[in-house]
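A protein record in our archive is deliberately plain, so that people and models can read it alike. The tokens are whole numbers drawn from a learned vocabulary of local backbone shapes. For reference, a complete record is included directly beneath this paragraph.
>
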Amino acid sequence: MKTLTNPFFLKMEQGARRAADDLGAELVVRTGAQETSIEQQVAIVDELVADNVSAIVIAPGDSVRLIPAVKRAREAGIPVVNIDNRLDPDFLARAGITDVPFISVDNEAGAYLATRRLVADAASPAAAFVLEGIRGADNAEARRRGAVRGFEEAGVPIVASESANWKIDEAYDVTKRVLIAHPEITHLFAANDMMALGASRYLRDAGRFDVRVAGFDALEEARQAIATGELQASIDQQADVQGYTGVDYALRLLRGESVPTETIIDVLVVDTETLNTAPPPAGGQ
């Protein structure tokens, strides 16, 4: 996986470990130090190939830069399953790889739903700010597109769109700089909850309680912030189901079975109306 510094990936790990227990597999979990530690993730894949693991399930930190490592794994006869962030199909094809199973959610649809919930009762005039994930990552780009579509359909102009690379502290700093430059901002969509929480922390420190914020991942801390009104919404992309399904598919491939080319897990909107009815994250996350 990308990292274990984000609770989203802890939840994904829990699902993967549950699958390994249920299905009788030995699971090795390796991650980078941060979600931006792409070269480290490449090195980890190469180490796993050298260790002759049976299969690899990967949530790539980058949609292109991990492809050469995936190709080396495949050339070594190791099945690979792609979860969470999609490896770029065009670059996979150029590398001669056309059959890596992909498991994730419709990130664009999830961001659109979160943004529409955010602007459901927007007063006029209104202005929006999009906090993006790592640019070039498939899931980050999809969430940006979904947010843009949601704001545009609501007639809320986007006055700023910047990346905070999925990080809480960076989101605090970026939000501070953008809000000083654009004090007219009233709505903020962050492409993950870590950035939403960082942005919300700055807004609280600055006394900007008029800015409505939505995130993505439905982390426990984000759920608590929704309950107190600090956040308006988030999206549960069922990371534990993604982790479980990834291990399941890897074992099925090892048995010579076919698996779907693409599996899209349902997203769930978490807001004050659904907070008490939405399924809680596995393992208390």
User: Anything to note?
Assistant: The domain at 107-236 is CATH 3.40.50.2300 (Rossmann fold). Strands lie at 56-58, 80-83, 102-105, 128-132, 158-163, 187-190, 212-214, 233-236, 262-265, 268-271.
